[in-house]
Amino acid sequence: MSLSRRLSIAPMLDWTDRHCRYFHRQLSQHALLYTEMVTTGAILFGKGDYLQFNELEQPVAVQLGGSDPVDLAKCAKIAAERGYSEINLNVGCPSDRVQKGRFGACLMEEPKLVAECVDAMKQVADIPVTVKHRIGIDEHESYAFMTDFVGEVNQAGCDVFIVHARKAWLQGLSPKQNREVPPLDYERVYQLKKDFNHCHISINGGVMTLAQALEHLEHVDGVMMGRAAYQNPYLLAEADALIFGQETERRSRADIVQAMLPYMEAQISEGARLNSIIRHMLGLYQAVPGARAWRRYLSENARGEGKTIQVVEQAMALVYD
C-alpha cells in the first residue's frame, strides 16, 4: 500500500482545487492530496478541463462522482492517462443535488452497482481504484449494513476504503449540518479494520490535529483530514516528520509564502486571479501575531483584475512569524 495514504487531505468542494493542492504540497511532500469531487458528466461533456493539475502536486488522487459503470470507466481511463495516482469513487456525499444524480452516499444502498462501477474502472485503469463511504445512511445504521457493502465492493477488487465515521442523513439535514450530526463512531471503523484486515482502511471525520491522527493510526491504516487542514494549513508542516517519519526540516510560514510567489506569478500570467490562489492561504498564519491583519489585508486587496504578488508581499509585512 502507498505510504502516502497514512495521511490524506479530503476532497472538499470549492476548496481543494489545483491552487489549494499546490499550496498544500509546499507544506507536506508525502500526504496524499485529492481533487474536489468531479462528476462524470463534467469530464465527458463539460467545456472546461476539470482534470487539470500540476505534476508537482503528486501524489494526487481524483475523486469521481457518478454511478454509471460505462461513464466511470471512460473517466477512469482519462484520469489514468492524465497521470493521477489514484481514482476514488464518492459514496459519501449526502447533498440533495448529488442524490438526484444517483451518486454519493445513497449508493451505499446499491453495493452491487458500486461493485460494478469499481470493476469497470479497474478494467481500464492501471492505478488503484478506491471508495470513500459512510458508516451508514438514514435508517441503515447497523454494522452489518456497512460490512455487507464493503464485502461486496471488496470482491470486485477494491481493497482501499476511506470511511467517514458518521452516518449520512439523506433527508432533513443539509451537508453542512451532516458534518456535526449524527455523532462520530470511530470504534465502528476500528472494528471494520479488524474484520477486513487485508484491506487498507482510512478514517475520516472530526480529526483536528496530527496528535489525533497518530492515535487513529494505532487502529487503522490511514487518516484523512478535512476542514482542520484547510483552515489551519500550517499543521501539515509537521506531517512529514510525525506521520511519515521523514527527518525533514520544517519550513517557516514565510518560506511557504516565498515558495508560492513564483507559482502565483506564473498563474497570473496565464489569466488566473490572485484571489483564486491566495484564498486558500488565509489560514496560514493562524495563532500568529498579525494573523488577523494578514487575512484582512488579503481579503480586501487581492480581489479583482490586475492584482500582483506585491499584495502578498505587503501582507507578509503585517505578521510576525
UniProtKB/TrEMBL annotation:
Binding locations of FMN: 11-13, 63, 132, 164, 204-206, 226-227
EC top class, as a word: oxidoreductase
One Pfam family hit: Dus
Domain DUS-like FMN-binding: 9-314
InterPro entries: Aldolase_TIM, DUS-like_FMN-bd, DUS_fam, DusA, tRNA_hU_synthase_CS
Catalytic reaction equation(s): 5,6-dihydrouridine(20a) in tRNA + NADP(+) = uridine(20a) in tRNA + NADPH + H(+); 5,6-dihydrouridine(20) in tRNA + NADP(+) = uridine(20) in tRNA + NADPH + H(+); 5,6-dihydrouridine(20a) in tRNA + NAD(+) = uridine(20a) in tRNA + NADH + H(+); 5,6-dihydrouridine(20) in tRNA + NAD(+) = uridine(20) in tRNA + NADH + H(+)
Gene3D superfamilies: 1.20.120.1460, Aldolase class I (3.20.20.70)
Cofactor entry: FMN
Site (Interacts with tRNA): 90, 176, 179, 292, 295
Annotated GO MF terms: flavin adenine dinucleotide binding; FMN binding; tRNA binding; tRNA-dihydrouridine20 synthase activity
Positions annotated as active site in the UniProt record: 93
This protein's UniProt keywords: Flavoprotein, FMN, NADP, Nucleotide-binding, Oxidoreductase, RNA-binding, tRNA processing, tRNA-binding
PROSITE patterns per the UniProt record, alphabetical: UPF0034
EC number: 1.3.1.91
PANTHER family: FMN-LINKED OXIDOREDUCTASES SUPERFAMILY PROTEIN
Cited function: Catalyzes the synthesis of 5,6-dihydrouridine (D), a modified base found in the D-loop of most tRNAs, via the reduction of the C5-C6 double bond in target uridines. Specifically modifies U20 and U20a in tRNAs.
Family statement: Belongs to the Dus family. DusA subfamily.
Protein's name according to its UniProt entry: tRNA-dihydrouridine(20/20a) synthase
Gene: dusA
